[in-house]
Amino acid sequence: MDIASSQHDVASALAGVRVRIEQAAREAGRDPADVTLVAVSKFHPQSAVEAALQAGQRVFGENRVQEAAAKFPALRKAWPDLKLHLIGGLQTNKAREAVRIADMIESLDRPSLSDALAKAADQEGRLPDLLIEVNTGDEPQKFGVPREEAEAFIRANRTRFGDRLRGLMCIPPAGQDPVPHFQFLRQLADEHGLAVRSMGMSADFPQAIAQGATLVRVGTAIFGGRPAGLAAN
Ligand SMILES: *Cc1c(COP(=O)(O)O)cnc(C)c1O
């Protein structure tokens, strides 16, 4: 596929996703402007990100710090209002680079990572916005703080990071109805006065918007398929 046709594909897919976001918001009686689209560009080349930028997209999500660090600093020079969200499980030894390059880290999920981010923020003199990832399905193989530990973890990080702790994120279990997971996350965020609810991916973002998502993380529906076996986290 040449660059011109891949740009066309990204632009039109992006336009289609935006229409569906607006429709879902209106159907839920919400203002579409209250839903931010995070375009998840993991495993896609810088040229795909550029096509999305040219089509007006500004917020991007990446799973891996190294991939994000390779792609985004150059793009930021040309597009200073670009925002980068790190959405994948984060190793503590990557915390410093994450703090250096991200505008938001959506995957704060354990005390050791909280410690590493606080230390990195001191060293770098900057602290990205933070979301706590909740493992709403309590799946052993998944990232995210278990449901039972979520309340205490939210309180501890609110104390530590103040208003930089902006909200919660979840990835419901594959093959299950995601709606109860979205409802759980929304309620937990409300109970703690947290405004940002990051939920919904290509397969279920309209449902997430109906349940109050303020960030939707959409990859495949914008950029097309990723190499097999590398799909999620
Ligand atoms: C890959 C990924 C997404 C996007 O998934 P799609 O199904 O391609 O839209 C969203 N959130 C996280 C955490 C991801 O890892």
TrEMBL record:
Database matches in Gene3D superfamilies: Alanine racemase (3.20.20.10)
Keyword flag Disulfide bond: no
CDD domains linked: PLPDE_III_YBL036c_like (cd00635)
Keywords: Pyridoxal phosphate
Pfam families according to UniProt: Ala_racemase_N
Chain ranges of the Alanine racemase N-terminal domain: 23-227
InterPro entries per UniProt: Ala_racemase_N, PLP-binding_barrel, PyrdxlP_homeostasis
SUPFAM superfamilies documented for this protein: PLP-binding barrel
Keyword Cell inner membrane belongs to the record: no
Sample GO molecular function, one term: pyridoxal phosphate binding
Modification N6-(pyridoxal phosphate)lysine, positions: 42
Cofactor(s), names only, from the UniProt record: pyridoxal 5'-phosphate
Annotated family: Belongs to the pyridoxal phosphate-binding protein YggS/PROSC family.
Function per UniProt: Pyridoxal 5'-phosphate (PLP)-binding protein, which is involved in PLP homeostasis.
Protein known as: Pyridoxal phosphate homeostasis protein
